Amino acid sequence: MATRAVPKDKVLYNSSTAENIGVMLQCQICSDFLNNNRECRKCGSMFCFDCLDKWMKEAGCSCCPKCGLDAKELPVGFEAFLFNNFVNRVVNNLEVTCPNNDNGCCEKTIKRCNYWDHVEKECKGRRLKCENCVYGCKFEGNGLQMEKHKAEQCLFEREEIKQLMKRSQIDSEGLVSMNKQLVAENQQSKQNIEVMLRQIDSLNSELAKEKEINLQYQQKLQTMMNQPPPNVVPVSILPPPPPYSVGEFQYNPMPMPSQPLVMPPVQQVITRKFRFYGKTVWTKFQGKGTNSEVPGWEVLIDVDDNPTGDNVRGSNKNSGVQIEKKYSGFIRDGILDITVEWTDGRRAKYYSNNILLAHGSPIKLTFEIVSTGKQGGTTGDCGYNQGLIEQLQ
Ligand SMILES: [Zn+2]
Ligand SMILES: [Zn+2]
Ligand SMILES: [Zn+2]
Ligand SMILES: [Zn+2]
């Protein structure tokens, strides 16, 4: 059927026209303005996408609620419901009023498609929370009230308060994380205790088994002990040997010692031989101070290295002096402490610290006459011997 257009100047724009158009832009299910519209390919009825989807699910079919067109009956590639772009544009351009009109919003009208952006993000009349709510400000109000609040009233706009609140927040975060850690540790301890309790249980049951076995053994042993012993007759294999007689002597076998003989340990003592040689210096001689040097000092000593200290023996001569001297004493931990006896009865103490008894080491022995003997002289005469050590073997 061909349609002929009515001239534009014959169309009447009035309230009834607007009402009719308004009804045509409504969903056939919810009667609200079409939202994301779908139009029936057959009858042209229009629905919101969500309304149509919900209706089909409830009805259990894919039919048009008005004319019953079933999408399944259409050829492949044909959709029963189509999106109408023109209707969508008309609906989006409908003008609406802001709900905050009486509460500080300056916009007279908004396009329907911008409604939520305006109300939630742009509207000066929308309700806001103070930005400082993170620090604890509880103030809420519209845009104008908020500007005034922040400029004049908000306590948390002050920098020192912000810092204080930040610090206390960090402290409390630290406490929260510490608490979490303690809870986790507590949990771990509980698990450990459970494991230990299970181990104790299993050990207890093993112990009970062992006790049972032990009891059985004891009972067996008791039974065996209660039985009379078997009648054992000793069997002699060889007759006892007769005593031997050689002439008038009679030989009786010697009894074996009850304990094996233990040989005393042989102590290994190593003897080293040394020669000390150099000079003698008298710092006091016949009671008078002096520094007279006598060359040709020589001492031969043997050192027994043994664990209880090293005994020292030896002899001494100064050049040109024939009287023999005997040495005795010890060396231990680098200390040489010896006594010298002359054959004429004189005695002297020789002493040295930090001595290294080794070939080529220097040596200095201080001495003091402690007894003059028959020879006479002065007790308390003293001096030192100084020289080198030579190891002879
Ligand atoms: Zn609807
Ligand atoms: Zn239809
Ligand atoms: Zn507004
Ligand atoms: Zn505030």
From TrEMBL:
What Gene3D superfamilies does UniProt report for this protein, alphabetically? Zinc/RING finger domain, C3HC4 (zinc finger) (3.30.40.10)
RING-type domain ranges (all copies): 27-67
Zinc finger residue ranges, TRAF-type: 94-147
* Cross-referenced InterPro entries: Znf_RING, Znf_RING/FYVE/PHD, Znf_TRAF
Supply the alphabetized keyword list: Coiled coil, Metal-binding, Zinc, Zinc-finger
Any Pfam family from its record, for instance, is zf-TRAF
GO MF assignments:
zinc ion binding
Any idea where the TRAF-type domain is?
Answer: 94-147
Positions the record marks as coiled coil are: 179-227
Tell me the protein's name.
Predicted protein
